[in-house]
Write a structure and sequence with these properties.
alpha+beta; four-stranded antiparallel beta sheet; 11 helices
């Protein structure tokens, strides 16, 4: 094909998704082929700009598995970059969670259009090899991120049955929420926060962006009139619905997969995450909320903390009881591919890491579970470890073990990581000031937890340091986000400048 059509972008499924299930392979290759001409052109232009600036450092692009890949590979396999932006937010959350003593996290990234959530266990985000984009199944390794159409720009509307709904339609950046004054007429989640006084109309982007609270109030009042509600009740209804939508998304990755949210801290980021985290955590009964120092740019921060990562896979159907010869042979083949990649990327021997797993199932099942392969274990001990790992995962996911059924090995996976030197996150000494010095006034806010309007203290995030404690209700403002602390909650700043919110004792 390349000889006949040298200008064509060619996408081969055996290179992109070397696994069984032909329809998913075909779909992945088709999506890759669709993205290829656009992505390859973009990468070429970006590379030319970088060269023109005289930058000689290696250039990489983030991908869906939380790592980065070379420009060349991204241009040839752009499907690897689907959901790549949210994946770096998870990477950043994992790094901050580790420092904050919270290895078990639910990451909550709420922006203007959508909310992305993921589960982190013992410092490792859950991963998935299957997803769908606009109905097209993709078979690529990625962080297991669940996305829901709930963001600051999500539009509130009344459906044909007379019920209030929020999203998934979004106002986008233009015209944006009604309060932007750019011609929008349908209220959004942001309008609800502005109308209730939670968002400061004079301090969006540190005062660089002015918004009109009156426009938001009028738009929400019109919706409320159709429902027989006051403006405040309608606005709070919008916030309650979007909270329920986000809680549902989190339950998909936690409760439905055998995890109790009460055992996880909620890491809230994105521009809108910290303003909604307090009620979301109460809905899920998460014991702790962590708001990073710059929540609006945590995805960008995470990009600076990523490593070179690529994934390899081979499908070979064999029974666990057949022994370890097949296991050794499959991983040896994958490791040869990884060694070639390490050499091509110039990764030093000391910076190379390999992680192995096998997709396993009971013979006759149509779904598999990923089971880590322990390091340094061989022979009968490896068979026993894989069996125990599979049964534990099957019991957690489905509530039972079929002891008499043979266990089948399906797909062998190898993740190769080239560890990249990173800057350390700064640890700060205890503050020698009083938190009240960061207070710059108060604002009347409508809080259902207080039964209506109440004066809420306002704090500048930049004035808060390690050891400072604030009792709710309170609002913390900064250029890239706003944090709401509810009555009955207390917040403390840790040594890495995270705001840690818990229910008051």
């Amino acid at each position: 094909v390349a000889e006949v059509m040298p200008e064509a972008f060619i996408s081969c499924s055996h290179e992109i998704a070397p696994e069984f299930r032909e329809f998913e392979r075909f779909s992945t290759a088709a999506v890759n082929a669709t993205l290829g001409p656009v992505m390859s052109g973009y990468v070429r232009r970006l590379s030319e700009r970088i060269d023109a600036l005289g930058v000689s450092a290696p250039s990489h692009i983030t991908q869906s598995n939380g790592g980065v890949i070379s420009f060349d590979l991204a241009a040839r396999q752009p499907v690897r970059t689907v959901l790549s932006g949210p994946s770096t937010g998870v990477v950043g959350a994992v790094a901050l969670g580790r420092l904050a003593g919270a290895p078990d996290l639910i990451t909550f990234d709420m922006g203007g259009t959508s909310t992305d959530v993921a589960l982190v266990r013992a410092g490792h985000p859950d991963r998935s090899g299957d997803m769908a984009v606009h109905g097209h199944p993709l078979k690529i390794p990625m962080l297991d991120i669940n996305t829901v159409g709930a963001g600051g720009g999500s539009i509130a509307h009344i459906d044909h049955g007379g019920l209030l709904k929020v999203g998934p339609q979004s106002a986008g950046a233009e015209p944006g929420p009604v309060c932007y004054g750019l011609g929008a007429t349908e209220p959004t989640v942001t309008d609800a926060n502005v109308a209730l006084g939670v968002l400061n109309p004079d301090y969006l982007l540190a005062g660089r962006m002015k918004i009109d609270r009156g426009l938001a109030v009028d738009a929400i009042a019109a919706v409320g009139a159709r429902l027989g509600l006051s403006m405040e009740e309608a606005a709070q209804g919008i916030l309650s619905i979007v909270t329920a939508n986000m809680a549902k998304a989190i339950r998909v990755i936690s409760v439905q997969r055998g995890h109790d949210p009460r055992g996880f801290a909620l890491m809230a980021f994105g521009g809108a995450g910290p303003i909604h985290a307090a009620r979301l955590a109460r809905e899920l009964e998460c014991p702790r909320i962590i708001v990073p120092p710059h929540p609006g740019i945590l995805c960008a921060t995470g990009l600076l903390l990523t490593d070179l990562v690529t994934d390899y896979a081979r499908t070979r159907l064999t029974l666990l009881a057949d022994g370890t010869d097949a296991i050794a042979a499959e991983f040896a083949a994958l490791e040869r591919q990884a060694a070639d990649w390490f050499e091509a990327e110039g990764v030093a021997e000391t910076a190379r890491q390999l992680s192995r797993s096998i997709d396993m199932r009971y013979a006759g099942q149509n779904y598999e579970l990923a089971v880590p392969v322990p390091e340094g274990v061989a022979g009968d001990a490896l068979i026993a470890a894989l069996k125990a790992g599979f049964e534990a995962e099957h019991a957690r996911m489905y509530g039972y073990i079929a002891e008499e059924e043979p266990i089948q090995l399906v797909t062998f996976r190898l993740q190769a990581t080239g560890v990249v030197p990173k800057s350390e996150i700064t640890r700060h000494p205890p503050a020698d000031t009083d938190p009240e010095e960061a207070r710059f006034g108060s604002r009347t806010v409508w809080l259902p937890e207080r039964g209506g309007r109440t004066d809420v203290p306002l704090y500048q995030r930049a004035g808060l340091g390690p050891g400072h404690r604030i009792d709710g209700p309170a609002i913390v403002e900064q250029m890239d986000s706003t944090t709401l602390i509810l009555p009955g909650q207390s917040a403390q700043v840790d040594e890495y400048l995270n705001i840690v919110i818990e229910e008051a004792a």
